Amino acid sequence: MLFGNSRDELRRGWLQAWQRARTGALLTALDTQLVTLIREHPEYHDWLQRGDDALHTEFSPESGRVNPFLHLSMHLALREQVSTDRPAGIARIHAKLAAKDKAHEAEHAMMEALGKALWDSQRAGRAPDERAYLEDLERLATSSSARKGR
User: Fold this and answer.
1) What percent of the chain has pLDDT over 70?
2) How many Cα atoms are found within 13 Å in the side-chain-facing hemisphere of 29?
3) Is there a domain that residue 128 lies in?
4) 57 vs 7, 8, 37, 71, 145, CA distance in Å?
5) Alpha-carbon distance 134 to 79, whole Å?
6) Number of structural domains, the chain?
7) What value does the mean pLDDT of the chain take?
């Protein structure tokens, strides 16, 4: 597990990494990855400084608010997938999308497919379908190329 088994432990890991960075404490390799992502999202800085208040905030779809922990964790997951090219081919797709925009924006574009793969997996009670996930990403890369060519 990244930080533990519960939602609060996961959130606490993000908050503690940000706190250590803000106080100039020594960062672990994982802290450095987390802080890099947080710095790329200044819209979350004030919110992440709320400490325990942030741990217990609910982010229902009805609220219309983005869950910063989920958003940042999806970035982290995508970066891990790209760095290991797992599923095979994702690094090529990311590079194709990043060539049109920045790598960070490519990740934003890829998040919908990742979220769909995780949602489908959770509902079916099985591991994510890598083939379907890659097919969704391929469609994204192809449609992105077509739009850029206009």
Assistant:
1) 94
2) 1
3) yes
4) 11, 10, 20, 15, 38
5) 15
6) 2
7) 90
* Residue partners of 94: CB distance under 8 A and separation at least 6: 78, 82, 103, 106, 107, 110
- Span 77-133, pLDDT tens digits: 999 999 999 999 999 999 999 998 789 999 999 999 999 999 999 999 999 999 999
Q: Which domain holds residue 107?
A: 85-150
The residue-averaged pLDDT of 55-69 equals: 87
Reference 79, options 29, 43, 22, 8; nearest CA is 29
Rounded Cα distance between 132 and 119, Å, is 12
Say yes or no to pLDDT of 2 above 80. Answer: no
Q: Is residue 1 part of a domain?
A: yes
- Long-range interactions of 25-34: CB distance < 8 A, separation 24+: 30/2, 33/76, 33/79, 34/72, 34/76
